[in-house]
Design a protein that fits this description.
The structure is a homodimer.
Chain A (H helix, E strand, L loop, with lengths): L1 E6 L7 H14 L4 E4 L17 H14 L6 E9 L2 E10 L2 E7 L17 E5 L2 E7 L3 H6 L6 E6 L7 H16 L3 E5 L1 E4 L2 E4 L3 E3 L5 E4 L6 E6 L13 H19 L5 E4 L4 H14 L4 E5 L7 H14 L2 E4 L3 H15 L6 H22 L2 E4 L3 H6 L12 E2 L6 H11 L8 H5 L12 H4 L3 H13 L4 H5 L5 H13 L1 H4 L23
Helix pairs in contact in A: 1-2, 5-6, 5-11, 6-7, 6-11, 8-9, 14-16
């Protein structure tokens, strides 16, 4: 049997766009090939509360009916409305006629609003039996007697650097046991914080991987289920996957929201130096604008490093000192600040003035701001709310500081794209004289180790101490993580790269 | 059988506090009374991802064991860890000995991390049979043959003005059919955005309500299941319930986070005039500070109305004109703004300067900022991100503008507490000369009607037009709701008063 895996990047609720994408793929496909699209290919995903609106189902039905005018054989995902209930569904169409439906039974976090359906469906096609359904329902199907010649799974799997390996490892013994080849079709692309994995594949009945689509990119992959060639995987290193994921996340955020220009503050530090590289890769240098906002506490190397970044990349940049605005704010606040010790209030003012100026430019020219907060900072609240945490999208908010350095070094593997000085110097917020991050925080290698154990592995205090970290450091870090939860409810939503993205996967009580 | 309904207000993850609260109630209770506490009484709720940490279960077990030293009979909720799985559980303790457990089967949105358990449990107690379990599992229990003399349900029901009526109306026919009296024990109080309903009750086997605890407040209610007296409900009007809910939400936010002082901007408009009344009621006038931040576009009545508010309530207030800060920002931005038409950028700068100054004061004196954005504004994005939308907690973010007026009039029913001028004048953001909200938005009565149909009743475009609203107005409003979704991911979390709280219950795709 000939099958085409059509790994596409639909836009949420843009039925017309997705319809055109699917129609184009059908027109291009071989006459005798069954074309398989991902879960919710017609509507895009996640749908969130759009599942509650009848308009969603009306548009879906209308475009689905038009699709059937293509006299082709295909499977595609769409939301359907039946007898007052809403289902996440897959339609099997043969020669333009609806032949069978599968409705998702085991609903996941994105299926809010859908009713639990029937799971896998068996269908006769070209004298063979196909079992088709959602990945979430595969285990239920495999528990029953398997009568199919081939299994087709559609899904919307989220990216993490470990996703694909974990999926293949878990699937292999099940498929070996079932002795039935499986085709898994994923979507790719990003929607808001969510990055989808792509990497659709064909796995042989013996559990060997036979063909695989690329990570992240749209692709058509031709399968002949009779052929049993083996695919030799050479997965990208973790940091490279995350780099491409961040670039994709930025690109899709801007393209899908029809925003052309990206703005970001360039401090001369490593975070903004990395993000500007990601942004230029995603949007082109002509669409990225850097803003340097030096204060009286900025060191001269901060300014020269930031300028070096901008010049190396060839982007437009502007320098706007914040001293006058800081003084104006201090003058206004003088009646209240008078007689009180300097504290975090003065530091935060500077960050918020930077936010104010960047947002002012963004509003004036119709650009969107890229947030440059990393996961380590976000976790311990090292950053000013309504200042550092501003932005339309958090680009590295699910990337630890130690990974920010690693990614930067990888970017510089052949050539100094990021100033080496930004990579090697001690991190500083430069909000008071001679300030260093380590004045308030442990060294980042210790911090990130504790955060990884606590956030990714859900280790409690004692379990982290048992890993050899001293109790005072553990207590300090866990306290910072706890008391800064409230901030994470108001920061720019970050591109998700793990199963513990702060504010997305991991939410804790505020009180 | 004598039962004490112990409606308490636990603090999330403050096991020691909750333990003391429960212990105190047990000490006060009659020797022959079974004392019933709400779901997760020992841990508080929602637990969010704290369910993933073994520390949560260790603390829970340790305090539960200490509780059993009270040689009393009681039922209380706690998270438990059994054979590597986590359950939302109820423990039935008789004379200090654990007699039975019920583990929640039908998990809800707050039960992330828990495994589905066994549902209701039957237990013999004082020669009678008690069926006890979670409200979510009641329907499953009632489907089986009911053998109990009394049903005891524990729960954590969220407040909306309609919650209690809906609950009683749905329960009544089920209880009439089962012919078994039921006791339902809810928690009260607020945690972050969530306000819990309280209103625990005893319903007779004939479906009549016999006793009921108050909305929102902690309370002990004595029940004798042999007595069949009927309770005459006189529920508060909707707007009064919402008033008390907002006051409770503010009070619990500050008390549970150990924050004493609240700050808010006073514009002379109705929203801040209402919120300052709520804050004074919640925290006392000595803990509320108003900041007047007039600009060159502020009308004289704005200042006099804001001052009148502050003086009437007897709170500390300060006036800080923003003109110099606005000019400093415009000067800094001049190289970029030059030659471009004035637009929303200049307006937003003023709002963000206000936010900067209020946050500066908050950071200096260790206060938290009350956000004053209402639901109508939040829905259509009428407000500046990182300015108007700032705050630790959104006080009226789930209250429509038309309800803001109604609540204000109710507050003034006997005496002018809110300046009548703030209530009657046309709403204006005062960010440019002679600006009115209606320059950008339809009248609030039309806006709120469309929003109610769209948000609370999930009506699509055509269904709203069919209700008699003109298509242009509907399109304009739905477009604003859609394109401002991204802002709602970064605003102060609002106290929840409906099943469609923006950013809490209702989340939509950003793109």
């Amino acid at each position: 049997m000939k099958i085409t895996i059509s790994q596409i990047n639909p836009k949420t609720l843009d039925f017309k766009y997705n319809f055109t994408l699917i129609q184009q793929r059908l027109k291009e496909s071989d006459v005798d090939s069954l074309v398989v699209f991902p879960e919710l290919a017609l509507s895009g995903s996640p749908l969130y509360d759009a599942t509650k609106y009848t308009q969603t189902y009306e548009e879906s039905l209308s475009f689905a009916e038009t699709l059937s005018q293509e006299k082709k054989d295909f499977i595609f995902g769409l939301p359907i409305h039946q007898n007052g209930e809403f289902f996440n569904s897959l339609a099997f169409v043969e020669n333009g006629e609806l032949k069978a439906l599968s409705t998702k039974k085991n609903l996941n976090q994105f299926d809010k609003g859908f009713t639990s359906g029937e799971g896998f469906t068996l269908v006769e096609y070209k004298k063979q039996t196909i079992a088709f359904g959602f990945l979430e329902d595969l285990d239920d199907y495999l528990k029953k007697e398997d009568k199919a010649n081939v299994i087709i799974c559609c899904s919307n799997i989220l990216f993490t650097p470990e996703t694909q390996k974990k999926l293949l490892t878990e699937l292999q013994p099940k498929i070996r046991k079932a002795k039935t080849p499986i085709i898994l079709v994923n979507r790719c692309g990003a929607e808001g914080s969510y990055i989808f994995n792509g990497s659709s594949f064909f796995m042989l009945a013996n559990g060997d991987l036979s063909k695989q689509s690329p990570l992240f990119e749209e692709n058509s992959l031709q399968i002949d289920t009779e052929k049993t060639e083996k695919y030799n995987q050479s997965p990208l290193p973790r940091i490279e996957k995350m780099y491409h994921a961040a670039v994709l996340g930025i690109r899709d955020y801007f393209h899908k929201n029809n925003i052309k220009k990206a703005l970001l503050g360039l401090s001369g530090g490593i975070d903004s130096a990395l993000v500007v590289v990601l942004a230029v890769e995603a949007l082109g240098k002509e669409n990225v604008i850097g803003i340097l906002l030096p204060s009286e506490y900025s060191t001269s190397h901060s300014i020269t490093d930031a300028e070096a970044s901008a010049k190396k990349l060839g982007i437009e940049y502007h320098t706007i000192p914040i001293k006058e605005n800081f003084n104006a704010a201090l003058t206004a606040l003088q009646p209240i600040f008078e007689g009180k010790e300097p504290n975090v209030a003065e530091e935060n003012l500077q960050s918020r003035i930077r936010g104010l100026i960047i947002m002012g430019i963004a509003n004036k020219i119709g650009a969107a701001v890229l947030n440059t907060t990393n996961k380590s900072e976000l976790a311990v609240g090292y950053g000013t709310l309504y200042g550092d945490t501003n932005g339309a999208i958090g680009t590295i908010g699910d990337i630890y500081k130690t990974d920010v350095w690693e990614m930067s070094k990888w970017i510089n593997r052949n050539e100094e794209i990021i100033p080496w000085n930004s990579i090697t110097k001690a991190p500083s917020a430069e909000l008071r004289p001679d300030q260093k991050d380590t004045d308030s925080l442990p060294d980042y290698d210790v911090l990130d180790k504790v955060l990884f154990l606590h956030l990714e592995q859900s280790k409690s205090r004692q379990e982290i101490i048992d890993e050899g970290i001293d109790p005072q450091t553990v207590d300090k870090i866990l306290r910072l993580v706890k008391i800064n939860e409230w901030k994470r409810h108001q920061v720019a939503p970050a591109l998700r790269m793990s199963n513990s993205a702060l504010g997305i996967d991991r939410i804790m009580p505020i009180s």
